């Protein structure tokens, strides 16, 4: 079977598996949020300071919060069937518009953090495996252990203290310079400056995991017969590492990276709060505090879709990396 046919078969299989998963996630998320105390009408009435019981009842009737749970579920599913995520009582806007404003920031932050984590983790893993048992391996092991054990919010605060307060090299919060009128490359560079610290804070924990995984996988691959055969044929150590060892060592790293995509989104809640980053993480936190469950349901659904897409991508990458993986 050719590589394209194998990848196409893997894509069809994972797509069929994703459909019931998404439906299950939608229904479970809906019922779990129903267990939370209070609703958006309570929060809006509390913030007004002078709302009466009649006002609260009118708010619930306006947004359908006074309906039985099953009727609310049917209405929610009907909205989804018409490609609508509903309406936010808190923001007085369609949920899709609110999420659309925050989604690019979170996707850019997560993608940058994942690239940094994979590139940094694999590079450190190669160095650790190459110098296994010697001082570079031991020094890097100590450093990545620190990355793994220190909470992300503390790392974020220390990076702000060092690079923003002491050195003044990078901004401490936000996503772009307020009032800036630059465009093109200048705008990209300006936003990149604001992304360095949040992406680094989010990626350090995963750099520790991927470096240890890459080290173990490379040491295991180096002991295989096909590597000794390649060395006996006269291939250089660099060619053996790139062509034979690293390709097999990437399999466990890519598998775990797909599983960590959801964790990255969860970590983004803390990082976006620390750095005042306008993304879905902060929006989810604000939606929880204001009991805006329509927004929260939309974020959970979108997050689930992103995780499923990430896992599908991992399956396709693995089908490309290892032809021995059979599609069923």
Strand coverage percent:
under 5%
Order of helices and strands: HHHHEEHHHHHHHHH
What is the helix content? over 70%
Task: Count every helix, treating DSSP H or I runs of 4 or more residues as helices.
Answer: 13
Structural class designation: mainly alpha
- Which word captures the global form? globular
Measure the end-to-end span: 13 Å
| Largest sheet report | 2 strands, antiparallel
Give the total of beta strands.
Answer: 2
Quaternary structure type: single chain
Record the strand order, biggest sheet. 1-2
Mean pLDDT: 81
Low-pLDDT parts are none
Radius of gyration: 24 Å
Core attributes:
mainly alpha; two-stranded antiparallel sheet; 13 helices; 1% strand; membrane; transmembrane; BPD_transp_1_N; transmembrane helix; MetI-like
Structure commentary:
With 328 residues, this protein is an all-alpha fold. It contains 13 helices and 2 strands; from the N terminus they run ααααββααααααααα. The chain has helices at residues 3-34, 40-48, 53-63, 69-81, 95-130, 135-149, 152-166, 185-222, 225-232, 237-259, 261-274, 280-289, 293-321, and strands at residues 87-88, 93-94. Strands 1-2 form a two-stranded antiparallel sheet. α2 packs across α3 (53-63), α7 (152-166) packs across α11 and α8 (185-222) packs across α11. The two termini are 13 Å apart. The model has no long low-confidence stretch (mean pLDDT 81).
Summarize the structure.
It is found in: Cell membrane. The chain crosses the membrane at residues 15-36, 107-132, 139-163, 192-210, 249-275, 295-321. The model has no long low-confidence stretch (mean pLDDT 81).
């Amino acid at each position: 079977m050719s590589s394209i046919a194998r990848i196409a078969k893997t894509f069809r299989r994972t797509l069929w598996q994703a459909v019931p998963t998404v439906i299950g996630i939608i229904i479970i998320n809906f019922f779990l949020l129903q267990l939370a105390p209070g609703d958006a009408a309570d929060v809006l009435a509390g913030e007004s300071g002078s709302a009466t019981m009649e006002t609260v009842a009118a708010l619930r009737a306006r947004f359908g919060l006074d309906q039985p749970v099953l009727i609310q579920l049917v209405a929610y599913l009907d909205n989804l069937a018409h490609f609508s995520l509903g309406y936010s009582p808190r923001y007085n806007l369609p949920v899709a518009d609110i999420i659309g404003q925050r989604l690019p920031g979170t996707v850019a932050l997560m993608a940058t953090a994942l690239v940094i984590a994979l590139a940094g983790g694999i590079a450190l893993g190669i160095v650790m495996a190459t110098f296994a048992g010697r001082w570079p391996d031991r020094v890097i092991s100590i450093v990545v252990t620190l990355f793994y054990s220190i909470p992300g919010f503390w790392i974020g605060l220390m990076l702000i203290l060092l690079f923003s307060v002491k050195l003044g090299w990078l901004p401490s919060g936000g996503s772009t310079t307020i009032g800036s009128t630059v465009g093109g490359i200048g705008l990209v560079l300006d936003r990149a400056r604001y992304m360095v610290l949040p992406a680094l804070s989010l990626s350090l924990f995963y750099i520790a995991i991927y470096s240890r995984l890459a080290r173990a996988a490379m040491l295991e691959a180096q002991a295989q017969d096909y590597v000794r055969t390649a060395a006996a044929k006269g291939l250089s150590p660099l060619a053996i590492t790139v062509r034979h060892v690293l390709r097999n060592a990437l399999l466990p790293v890519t598998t775990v990276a797909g599983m960590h995509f959801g964790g990255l989104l969860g970590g983004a809640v803390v990082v976006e709060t620390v750095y005042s980053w306008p993304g879905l993480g902060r929006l989810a936190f604000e939606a929880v505090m204001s009991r805006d469950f329509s927004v929260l349901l939309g974020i959970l659904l979108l997050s689930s879709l992103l995780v499923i897409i990430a896992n599908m991508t991992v399956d396709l990458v693995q089908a490309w990396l290892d032809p021995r993986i059979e599609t069923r």
